[in-house]
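How it folds
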Amino acid sequence: MKRGYIVILIVLWSLAFAHFINNKKTSETDIVTAFSNDMFLSTNSHIEAVALCGNNYVSEEAKVDIIKSVAGKLGIKDYTLDCASSEKTQDNRLVATSKYANTEIKFVTVKNENDALVKRQYLMIDISISNSLESAVLYRDKVEDILENMNYSAEVTLTHKGNISGNLSLDEKNSITDDIIKSLNAQIVTERRDEKIYTVYAYTEAIDDYVVNGTSKTNVNVAISYDEIANETNIYMATPIINEDY
């Protein structure tokens, strides 16, 4: 399945942007190479994972050990640690920054207003990677494996965002989206396609993971928005759904 994710996501981006590069059919390898070149566009991949860690007491030392252990398994050696508290939450946080990636790992304790002894605890992993679709998929798989080996049930989302210059017409947006949906043999679950909000949810058996949207399975989400200030069109593709503002 993991190799399938790489192929699927490269194909998705290939379909979405092929007609913007040299206005001709381009191989998947060439498209990925082009995405790494700032002459054409920039891409950002966002991995977000949230795991419920239960209600049992965890010491401060143990919380720090947990997030440091996750960082080590991700290959992160240089980082900073801090702790922030409020009336409702306490966050033990590890942050690592590099040229092409930013990582934040948090152990979050949510306090109960009615009973101080009852708390909800979460392990959260947030990774942003610039201009490397392959790396994003590989790190998504790493995050899934790490949390599974820790016996945590987690929701892991992978979102890709790419920008191109100018404002696309509604027909162009529809063409890109329909190609993406068709490439996966996906069925549209729900959609809204207009100038203000453009988002499509679909389901395909080509991807194992899914969430339930209403009463239907969903594991592909495409959204397109226009940034008037930058004069750029942002195209988002996520599995299973987009969990960020667009």
Remarks:
- The radius of gyration is 20 Å.
- Helices lie at 2-17, 28-35, 60-73, 133-149, 170-183.
